């Protein structure tokens, strides 16, 4: 069903950076050290995978077994799933949630039949959730039943250390919460890895879906220094949030939440009924001083919706896609509207125009007395004729990609869901919201809408849970956590540098002021494609 053939190699997927100081790796470290000592005179290796079956640690007793593992991609950062590697002790133990031994011919892929493998799941004693998988592998000639009990003892030792670590982290978080929980003037929420604490004021104010936004804020906390910000809760209430990390709590944070302001009113729907999620907070007034406005952003960020809203309900819209096949006729229609119409003109996707058409359009836009709204890809991605056209706009708004504000995703998802099912009571469960917040969203709001439309199909009430989401979302675990704002900014800067250098990594590294080795590591961490398409070489008429 996954398209694997026994004669295939392990199917390559993205190899991402790993979190070396996670709760699992900290708990497993001493146990793995002891296992290495006990296996020192053997040809066995040790692999540790996290709760998504991504390898986070590897210990080898010889260079020979290390090279053998490299050939089958058993390396840190690789997600060892049955969909890419078939039956084996790591992926199958992850799938079945129980210990398993797979030796020689029992492997599905011939490339793995030189190994004897023993795998066991690691279950958290408190939450009873799968935390990871530990695996011992070696040459098939060295297969022995003695490794089963040896591996199970190691798994139990790691689980015991997870329990001890959870108790200590929970004690730290509980102590911090108790020091502030008696406050009646504001809500207090403490969020740990597997723990949520709230005072009575927070019970009425903060819903489960708000925890996703709070955890996104916690991911950006700089050490123990407090951070203050504003937030719109799922209920629509505007609140002020004071957040700070709790030392020794494994990423736990304490939030003091105070009501302030009034609930935001929902923005009017644009053509097709889509909520204007990507629109600027302060929509400009089309006057003589701002007659031409430019809306830029990645595909799916709401450029068209924002432009139509700014242009008004009576605006005339021209899409660059309609110019395909008859550029001259399209140009004449646009020029006529620019010179004669008395209403607003929206010219959508100017980056899709041919260079000739972009150059021809600059003159009529410049002399038009009508309000004009242009939309395009980010200005750095434009060719010279398109940049010249975009430069006519004295007012510009750049719509940020969805991945840059995970703390607002819950509010956006609720708005989209309300538009899709206006008469229903369907809601998103916190687990589903958390999974949505970890996605990279290359298609931005457009992709979010498609995902929610799939998840809500045929529903009139109830909760959308994780299993209702499409497989492309549930199986996309390339990032163990959502990127912080700083990481998102770094990723976008790398992509921009690669585009500017036409994919030349050496030139991009020089522009960014980093070494090529550092650049390669960042490419793996952020899952940036091997090649970034040159913005100037695409065929604008196809």
From TrEMBL:
PROSITE patterns: SIGMA54_INTERACT_3, SIGMA54_INTERACT_4. Keywords: ATP-binding, Nucleotide-binding, Transcription, Transcription regulation. Residues 254-278 are annotated as: Disordered. GO terms for molecular function: ATP binding; sequence-specific DNA binding. GO terms for biological process: regulation of DNA-templated transcription. InterPro entries: AAA_lid_NorR, GAF-like_dom_sf, Homeodomain-like_sf, HTH_Fis, P-loop_NTPase, Sigma_54_int, Sigma_54_int_dom_CS. This is Transcriptional activator of acetoin dehydrogenase operon AcoR. Residues 392-457 form the Sigma-54 factor interaction domain. It comes from Rhodococcus wratislaviensis (Tsukamurella wratislaviensis).
